[in-house]
UniProtKB/TrEMBL annotation:
<dbReference type="InterPro" id="IPR050090">
    <property type="entry name" value="Tyrosine_recombinase_XerCD"/>
</dbReference>
<dbReference type="GO" id="GO:0015074">
    <property type="term" value="P:DNA integration"/>
</dbReference>
<dbReference type="InterPro" id="IPR053876">
    <property type="entry name" value="Phage_int_M"/>
</dbReference>
<comment type="similarity">
    <text>Belongs to the 'phage' integrase family.</text>
</comment>
<feature type="compositionally biased region" description="Polar residues">
    <location>
        <begin position="17"/>
        <end position="26"/>
    </location>
</feature>
<dbReference type="InterPro" id="IPR002104">
    <property type="entry name" value="Integrase_catalytic"/>
</dbReference>
<dbReference type="InterPro" id="IPR013762">
    <property type="entry name" value="Integrase-like_cat_sf"/>
</dbReference>
<dbReference type="GO" id="GO:0006310">
    <property type="term" value="P:DNA recombination"/>
</dbReference>
<dbReference type="Pfam" id="PF00589">
    <property type="entry name" value="Phage_integrase"/>
</dbReference>
<dbReference type="InterPro" id="IPR011010">
    <property type="entry name" value="DNA_brk_join_enz"/>
</dbReference>
<keyword id="KW-0238">DNA-binding</keyword>
<feature type="domain" description="Tyr recombinase">
    <location>
        <begin position="193"/>
        <end position="401"/>
    </location>
</feature>
<dbReference type="Pfam" id="PF22022">
    <property type="entry name" value="Phage_int_M"/>
</dbReference>
<feature type="region of interest" description="Disordered">
    <location>
        <begin position="1"/>
        <end position="29"/>
    </location>
</feature>
<keyword id="KW-0233">DNA recombination</keyword>
<dbReference type="GO" id="GO:0003677">
    <property type="term" value="F:DNA binding"/>
</dbReference>
<protein>
    <submittedName>
        <fullName>Site-specific integrase</fullName>
    </submittedName>
</protein>
């Protein structure tokens, strides 16, 4: 009968033999990580000491296998190991890493709320084997019930990747987060702006630039004049459908007003990196976001005027801030809320993106709209951006029989 194979990382029966010089040799078989069983022996002045020395060597041999993660590893340590692995991942952005750290670690900012739910303080004391599906499911549902649906979704992604790492290290056999109940999405119908709304909105934006009082914004009386570039950014967004960060990242080197037809290329976006501030990221949110779009005449007119009024800056941005640097998206959004007033409180830069998608889809189809918006396919475009009902086929030939 063949000898039964040892499990990896274990050893067989220890045998000892007295040597001619009076010392003892303790011997056993050890199965290494490569699956090969090898003899291991150690010497000692006595039988007991030789066996003790051998057992110590075997323990060290087993410990050198590099198992940083076991079933008893705490989630706080697993989170650190997962983040360290993420840093080495090709293509990961600093913005994504900051987002992961923000959901895992307690903020050191004194202004941060102490009640904000973070993974480490909430789950960090659990060992991997204690992080069961039921515990994680209940934890995520509590976050949703407290009104933080997107936070729950982000933390589910992080926890799932952490537990996948534990599976890869043989700490557990399956990922408990995979069986967590689906987190409900907030159903929100895409709402585009019609031509009448856009005409009224544009008139209101111009009134705001001119210093007139609006609902939610008093009349201009003193201080820096209202920034007319808010209206210009809105025109470019309405005529091309970029993500807000893509519009503010547009450079004059991306603009070709002399070609026929005139076009611009969206090649980057504005992001904020912790410890570094605002930067122009040299790529868009997705690979499909790197795109060239043709310009309607009103956008051409806007960009020609902006270029004629522009002062050359090192960053070459079409829409810099007053100092020639990057226009902070938060500052732009603050001005936008003032300019749109209470009447158009529902209109955001994303509304323009939905308007572009809906108009293009109506005439050219959803795939064309997806290409304009920089989506890899039209599924996201149809679900979140196109404001039109699904059109059913003509079944009147069958339905007409109901009246006979």
């Amino acid at each position: 009968m063949p000898r039964q194979s040892l499990p990896i990382g274990t050893y067989g029966r220890i045998t000892s033999k007295r040597q001619p010089n009076g010392s003892w040799r303790a011997t056993t078989r050890y199965r290494d990580d490569d699956g090969i069983t090898r003899p291991v022996h150690k010497f000692g002045p006595t039988k007991g000491q030789a066996e003790d020395i051998l057992r110590k060597a075997l323990t060290q041999r087993s410990g050198s296998r590099g198992r940083l993660i076991t079933r008893d590893t705490k989630l706080t340590d697993l989170a650190d190991l997962w983040l360290a692995e993420k840093v080495l991942q090709e293509g990961i952005t600093e913005q994504s890493l900051d987002l992961y750290r923000m959901e895992i670690n307690v903020s050191t900012d004194r202004r941060a709320s102490k009640d904000t739910v973070k993974i480490k303080p909430a789950l960090g004391a659990l060992r991997i084997w204690e992080a069961t599906t039921s515990r994680i499911d209940a934890y995520l549902k509590r976050i949703v019930l407290n009104g933080h649906r997107e936070k729950a979704r982000r933390q589910r992604v992080i926890l799932s990747e952490m537990m996948s790492m534990a599976v890869r290290h043989d700490a557990i056999d399956r990922n408990p987060v995979r069986e967590v109940a689906d987190l409900p999405r907030k159903r929100q119908k895409p709402r585009a702006a019609d031509l009448e709304t856009l005409t009224e909105l544009r008139a209101q934006l111009q009134a705001w630039v001119d210093g007139e009082p609006l609902d939610g914004a008093p009349a201009y009386t003193y201080g820096p004049k209202r920034n007319p570039r808010v209206l210009d950014v809105a025109d470019v967004e309405l005529g091309t459908g970029p993500r807000p960060g893509e519009a503010l990242a547009l450079r004059w080197s991306d603009v070709d007003l002399d070609s026929t037809p005139a076009r611009i290329t969206f090649s980057g976006t504005i992001i904020r990196i912790k410890g570094k501030g605002l930067i122009r990221q040299e790529w868009t949110k997705t690979d499909s976001g790197y795109r060239t779009v043709v310009l309607p005449q009103f956008v051409i007119d806007t960009l020609r005027r902006v270029k004629a009024e522009a002062v050359a800056t090192e960053l070459d941005l079409v829409f810099p801030n007053r100092d020639g640097g990057i226009w902070d998206p938060h500052n732009f959004n603050r001005l936008w809320r003032q300019a749109r007033g209470e009447k158009f409180a529902w209109v955001t830069p994303k509304t323009f993106r939905k308007t572009v998608a809906s108009l293009i889809a109506e005439q050219y189809g959803p795939q064309a709209a997806a290409q304009q918006l920089g989506h890899a396919n039209d599924s996201v475009t149809k679900r979140h951006y196109i404001d039109q009902p699904t059109e059913a086929p003509d079944f009147t030939a069958a339905l007409g029989n109901l009246a006979r």
